[in-house]
Amino acid sequence: MEHTNHYRDGRLCRRLAEQIASMCAEDIQIMEVCGTHTVSAFRHGIRTLLPRSLSLISGPGCPVCVTDQAELDAFIEIANMPDTILATFGDLMRVPATGSSLQKEKAKGKDIRMVYSTMDALDLARANPDRQVVFAGVGFETTAPTIAASILAAHAESLRNYSVYCAHKRVPPALDALMRLSGVEIHGFLLPGHVSVIIGKQAYTAFFEKHRIPCVITGFEPADMFYGIGRLAEMIASGTPGLENAYGRAVSAQGNLRARQVMDRVFETTDALWRGLGRIADSGLAIGEEFADFDAARRFCVNVRPVAAPAGCACGDVLTGRCLPPQCPLYATVCTPADPVGPCMVSSEGTCAAYWKYNR
């Protein structure tokens, strides 16, 4: 806690905020890509100390939120298969699919288990040899290594009743897609801390060299965020874009090599559907041929069919910085945490949930 408190020093944060204000003569928009950054900015009152000329806009950094509607429907389809247990992390339970959710299906009697790790899902497979156990694989490069590790473990044990439905996303290709969007102007990126621990600073080099936009990898404590925002403001004001790692206590240039090796062995890149961004080339992870027996999509012939988002839901625009949650016609009226219409109101990293909790 002593170490953490150092990054929560109020006087330090105020000094950093004053420095930021001195550099923001013109209006600028900075996108925090990570959902945890969005929540941290609200929780610590960071927005209240920033100058009015600097706006923080949220990006597609909530893994549950960017999961496409069709993928959510695929999880429901698997959960309804006979002799099947669907294992999932808890943040996926209440996310609305088309006409249902995993929580609603569980209430109907489907065997859907909330687990804390992929190894818990493996334990379910070992304990239920007469049933198929499918893990709902959602997330970015942060969680993908643990799911790849579970597939390696199942392969080593010849555990034939375990598989993964893989809906993983890769962050760097999404940044490139954001730069091609109309209707939103981004002057700099606060890059995600958790993802960067795995993929390292080097993973963003090609993106930066292509677009020459200021980018800073940042931690999640208040001083981390003020420092990262300050570095971006300085780059923007001086017209000297850079790619900087301001989270050196956790992120290295190459990332976590062991985790990357595990991912590279099990997964291969593929095109993926993102809520709000559509299909992005090479932005997803698919289970490679060597481990095809553990691919639930192939094992159960699950076909992902394009599905429209819920009528009136602006989650796609919120995730790409094109609108703020209060600008959605459903926000705080039809869509609330008790009865969500879109995933951004469900996830603990969702922008709508953060606005509801901290900004009403």
**Total E-strand runs:** 11
What would you call the shape? globular
What is the overall number of helices?
A: 17
Oligomer state equals: single chain
Alpha-carbon distance between the two ends = 30 Å
Unreliable parts: none
Strand content: 15-25%
Walkthrough of the structure:
The structure is a single chain. With 360 residues, the protein is an alpha/beta fold. It has helices at 2-6, 10-23, 35-43, 46-49, 63-66, 69-79, 102-107, 118-127, 144-157, 171-179, 193-199, 205-211, 222-238, 257-266, 296-299, 315-318, 351-358; strands at residues 28-32, 54-58, 84-88, 112-114, 132-139, 162-168, 188-191, 215-217, 243-245, 267-274, 278-287. The strands form three sheets. Strands 2-1-7-8-9 form a five-stranded parallel β-sheet. Strands 4-3-5-6 form a four-stranded parallel β-sheet, sandwiched between helices. The chain has a two-stranded antiparallel ribbon with strand order 10-11. Helix 2 packs parallel to helix 13 (222-238), helix 3 (35-43) packs parallel to helix 17 and helix 9 packs across helix 14. The longest helix has 17 residues, at 222-238.
Question: What's the topology here?
Answer:
Layout: H1 2-6, H2 10-23, E1 28-32, H3 35-43, H4 46-49, E2 54-58, H5 63-66, H6 69-79, E3 84-88, H7 102-107, E4 112-114, H8 118-127, E5 132-139, H9 144-157, E6 162-168, H10 171-179, E7 188-191, H11 193-199, H12 205-211, E8 215-217, H13 222-238, E9 243-245, H14 257-266, E10 267-274, E11 278-287, H15 296-299, H16 315-318, H17 351-358
Helix pairs in contact: 2-13, 3-17, 9-14
What is this structure, in a nutshell?
The chain has helices spanning 2-6, 10-23, 35-43, 46-49, 63-66, 69-79, 102-107, 118-127, 144-157, 171-179, 193-199, 205-211, 222-238, 257-266, 296-299, 315-318, 351-358, and strands spanning 28-32, 54-58, 84-88, 112-114, 132-139, 162-168, 188-191, 215-217, 243-245, 267-274, 278-287. It has 360 residues and is of the alpha/beta class.
